[in-house]
Amino acid sequence: MNAAQEIVSVNPPTRRVVDPAGAPPHGPSQAAAEAALQEPPKLKVEGLNAWYGKNHALHDVNLTVAPRSVMAAIGPSGCGKSTFLRCLNRMHELIPGARAEGTLLIDGKDLLGRDVDPVNLRRRVGMVFQRPNPFPTMSIRDNVASGLKLNGVAGSHGEIVERTLRQSALWDEVKDRLDASALSLSGGQQQRLCIARALAVEPEVLLMDEPASALDPIATAKIEDLIHELKERYTIVIVTHNMQQAGRVSDQTAFFYMGDLVEVGPTEKIFTNPSEKRTEDYVTGKFG
Fold first, then answer.
1. What does DSSP say about strands 43-52 and 55-65: parallel, antiparallel, or unpaired?
2. Measuring CA to CA, which residue among 22, 75, 14 is closest to residue 243?
3. What is this structure's pTM?
4. Could you say which of 44, 133, 193, 201 is the most buried, measured as most Cβ atoms within 10 Å of its Cβ?
């Protein structure tokens, strides 16, 4: 299904997002999103620029993300969404020739400062990738505990493994086979296992790069339900090509286009009354 089929324009300037069955999205109200923004931001991005060699991929991005909220980054392929996400935990700089400049603050601390250890940063800002990537030679239990061992956390890790599998809504499905291979799980279960692995080291922020794009609708619904539960404790930034998914799970939405942050605001406003024509054209399916 393409964007034009997913998004329906209704007598502009009044526009609404509908799902294939015609039901409205189940995301939080604009009032709730605005209330969350009254707290000091968990993440603050100022003048963020990113390059791949000479290719200027992000241009002066400025935004804030409230604590215990979900921000969705939307836009067509190659517009800078995933680059933005990777900058937030400095994975961008792992690519040869890539660099980023600007200010990235988490609780007021600059993530791009020279005194910041990127490895320690990635413990605070976890990442879940587009395709499930459990460690194939490890059991379910060892996959969850792998980050703990890497970070020198001593002990049996049993309590943490159970807690994070419960947080990722996977415990009841795997509690009797923790020593089985992670590859014995379905794709949706593997993705929830990867979420549990990210949560085991107790991050403050969770980055999700199209976490449900490779999953079937039932598994996608479980991931979306999980996002709603996790935001009670974590700040989440999710990249998605599925605008209906953005409408269902996010409090704020940021629209990227050709390296520019065109518009950011409460999700309901972005989808029903955007300020920028490029945003309107994208969410109503005129391009994308």
1. antiparallel
2. 75
3. 0.84
4. 193
Q: Cα–Cα distance between 270 and 229 in angstroms, integer?
A: 23
* Nearest to 28, CA basis, from 253, 250, 270: 250
Q: Which residue has the tokens 């799970």?
A: 249
At 10-58, the pLDDT tens digits run: 233 333 343 333 333 444 444 554 555 578 899 999 999 999 999 999 9
Tell which CATH architecture fits domain 3-283: 3-Layer(aba) Sandwich (3.40)
Whether the CA torsion 114, 117, 122, 123 is positive or negative: it is: negative
Q: For residue 35, what are the contacts with CB-CB under 8 A and spacing of at least 6?
A: none
Q: Are 100 and 264 in contact (CB under 8 A)?
A: no
Query: Could you tell me if 34 and 266 are in contact, meaning their C-beta atoms sit under 8 angstroms apart?
Result: yes
Contact 205, 125 (CB under 8 A): yes
Q: Which residues contact 151 (CB under 8 A, 6 or more apart)?
A: 123, 201
> What's the angle, vertex CA 105, arms to CA 246 and CA 213, rounded to 5?
25
- pLDDT tens digit string along 53-112? 999 999 999 999 999 999 999 999 999 999 999 999 999 999 999 999 999 999 988 988
Lookup: tokens for 209: 């790069």
